[in-house]
Design a protein that fits this description.
Layout lengths: L1 E5 L11 H15 L3 E7 L1 E2 L2 E2 L7 E4 L2 E6 L10 H10 L5 E4 L7 H8 L5 E4 L7 H6 L8
Parallel strand pairs: 1-2, 1-7, 2-6, 7-8
Antiparallel strand pairs: 3-4, 5-6
Length: 142
Amino acid sequence: MRVLYISSVYKPAYVYGGPARSVPSLCEGLAESGADIEVLTTNAHRRTRLDVPLNRRLEVDGVPVTYFPIVGERYFHAPALVEAARRQVQGFDMVEIDALFSALFEPVAASAGGRGFLMSFHLEASCCPGPCRRNAGRRCST
């Protein structure tokens, strides 16, 4: 099975806590079990950026990962990631999106919808419990 995983953050963006640890763990497990997985993610790292090569596929602990630059300071706006997802989505059996509360979700979901494959949303990696509790459940920002 070919799986495209689209994530707002990926290791080493550990400032985001759980998602930067759980998403890579899930992807590594899928790769180890034989899935052909690829990750598209951003270089977000709060108010700075990850020091990683951009716009090219890297091998990160056995998983092909491409980091794309974010534009601006909020909501993981990454036009190059959205364009890459649009170009690549048809080559996969499943698309997993963990970017529910980000600028990535709507355009990526729209490009993936109706293509005859499974699309899944990883909600655990999309919630920021501390800030959301303080903000009465409103969306969280970067």
